[in-house]
């Protein structure tokens, strides 16, 4: 079963993809240098800081995990979210608004960046296998399939303590979605947007939470989407042969099995101009 894609990432106004040869592509806003990845090499996973669309949001950052367990980062660093150069032994990464998380080989978690809502209070987490960042909360899956969460839970987005048998998890703005090993999806948090309406999804192999929408991939390679569709970010019903998805603030990316990328949603900053990419492949 696939977990969250580590080779495709969608932020507030940019998109990132890791190619088979370890190089990285990025399109979209360059206001904070979040797309300055052209010299990156030997990268095995990427993550893009996402945040809901608002008048006071927009700047973002990008992080990359190298095969030797070290980190690369570029973009907005106002809260130290790019200060990861000293990290070692990292096996997975996640990026949210103003912060970065890293999963160590021993299952512990590193965090850097904004923590005023408690979203970086992950020092006590152990035996973790999956991490994800929302705007103001962080979530993860433990080796036993249970979930942990830290940060703002004003809409119940951190109410994951009862979840079991998880294969993956993803955090949005005010909601969290989880993928169980049996292909069923679960969700908690703000329901007014429809982003938590995943209860009838079946045979899901991958999913991702955007700011106000959720997308999932079925075992047959089709894509499902629920939630806000103001920019067409949920218009993915005709996508086929998809193996991974990434949901940004108002756009969606899909990775085909042949290494090419399809996009939907807001392209105001060129974040959907990834159609020419090739060689983006899962590990």
Could you explain the architecture of this structure?
- This protein is mostly beta strands and 283 residues long.
- It has no helices and 21 strands.
- The strands form 7 sheets. Strands 1-2-3 form a 3-stranded antiparallel sheet, with no helix packed on it. Strands 4-5-6 form a 3-stranded antiparallel sheet, with no helix packed on it. Strands 7-8-9 form a 3-stranded antiparallel sheet, with no helix packed on it.
- The radius of gyration is 16 Å and the shape is globular.
- The model has no long low-confidence stretch (mean pLDDT 96).
List keywords for this structure.
about 40% strand; mainly beta; globular; three-stranded antiparallel β-sheet; about 280 residues
How would you concisely characterize the structure shown here?
With 283 residues, this protein is an all-beta fold. Helices cover 0% and strands 41% of the residues.
Write the layout of secondary structure elements.
Elements: E1 8-10, E2 14-18, E3 24-28, E4 43-48, E5 61-66, E6 71-75, E7 90-96, E8 99-104, E9 109-113, E10 128-133, E11 137-142, E12 147-151, E13 166-171, E14 175-180, E15 185-189, E16 204-209, E17 213-218, E18 223-227, E19 242-247, E20 251-256, E21 261-265
Antiparallel strand pairs: 1-2, 2-3, 4-5, 5-6, 7-8, 8-9, 10-11, 11-12, 13-14, 14-15, 16-17, 17-18, 19-20, 20-21
